[in-house]
Amino acid sequence: MTTQRIGFLIWPSTKALTLALAEEVLRVAQKVHPEVVYELSFLQAEAPGEEEWRLPGEPWAGKLEGCQRLFLLADEPPAAVGSSLASALKQLVRSGCVVGGLSAGVYPLAQLGLLDGYRAAVHWRWQDDFAERFPKVIATSHLFDWDRDRLTACGGMSVIDLLLAVLARDHGAELAGAVSEELVVERIREGGERQRIPLQNRLGSSHPKLTQAVLLMEANIEEPLTTDEIAQHVCVSRRQLERIFKQYLNRVPSQYYLELRLNKARQMLMQTSKSIIQIGLSCGFSSGPHFSSAYRNFFGATPREDRNQRRSSSPFELSSVPAERG
After folding, report:
1. pTM of the full predicted structure?
2. Are strands 98-103 and 150-153 parallel, antiparallel or unpaired?
3. Each residue's pLDDT tens digit, 66-77
4. Is the domain covering 3-182 a CATH 3.40.50.2000 domain?
5. CA distance 169 to 208
6. Domain residues of the chain, as ranges?
7. What is the rounded distance in angstroms from the CA atom of residue 179 to the CA atom of residue 183?
8. 8 A C-beta contact, residue 169 and residue 32
9. I need a labelling partner for 136 at 20 to 30 A (CA). Which of 69, 151, 213, 284 fits?
10. What is the fold of 199-313?
11. CA atoms within 13 A on the CB side of 276
């Protein structure tokens, strides 16, 4: 029986939920598998103000040592890290500790140069700011990233996803699956899945007709509408609709709609056991060859090739997904 020592370094902005999600995954792992032992410690990076949450933990005492993994937690980007804490964190990394940032906990790691050259999952709200401030970090819109000895999660429920990946790496996919069932997690999400960004932010526009048109497309994946039908529903002419899409999305409505359906198909390929033909039909393609051709033209691989490649590189065994035949 091996004890894993995991520390949580908490900034005052941290929401109770962020810490609770991370802690609960590890607590449940020990409950469902008694041979799994995690020794958890909680440290305050800064003294909280009078009106802020009083989360668990003692003020850090000038040294950070003894942890095999240390997670930095914040839910708003902290100001500059103090020199003493900065030195302690860098020393901890030099000693071989794996470090991670949850939610805005990526900021102090980036400020200290500890994410230079690494992939880091950054919440969509901060991506522009983060990329501008830390150009040496490979900021992604993934749910979480595990890049060598750096772990980052964008925040919210992705904290559970990252900690389940930690369990899978430490003790196997079976334990991660058991914990997800105990927590009534619908499914184990891979780190490379993209954050669901609000429609207005995804479009980069608040144009009401554009928003209405895209919402119609998203609601009619299996039986796609024609461009004329969409224009009629949103009360503009076809030519007006095409101008709006060209102005804000640099593509015509039919092209955007096709990309939307193909991205939905790819999501289903990776997350369900449905056959390729079933997925193609449910995403509005009239036949298997039509679906395969469109998919290859957009993603550079056929649906079968893409599914097999993603399965082989996944840290989790999708045992419930049967192999394709033929």
Report:
1. 0.66
2. parallel
3. 788 999 999 999
4. no
5. 46
6. 3-182, 199-313
7. 6
8. no
9. 69
10. Arc Repressor Mutant, subunit A (1.10.10)
11. 19
- d(Cα 98, Cα 263) in Å, to the nearest integer? 34
Tell me the pLDDT tens digit for each residue of 161-195: 999 999 999 888 888 889 999 998 878 888 888 88
CB 150 within 8 A of CB 114: yes
Residue 100 dihedral angles phi and psi, to the nearest 5°:
-145, 160
**Positions of E strands within the chain:** 3-10, 37-44, 58-59, 69-74, 98-103, 119-121, 138-140, 144-147, 150-153
State the sign of the Cα–Cα–Cα–Cα dihedral 308, 312, 316, 321.
Answer: positive
Angle (nearest 5°) at CA 317 between 283 and 143: 65
**Predicted pLDDT of residue 3:** 80
What the block records as the tokens of 161 is 């996803």
- Tell the residue number behind the tokens 């429609």, with chain if given: 199
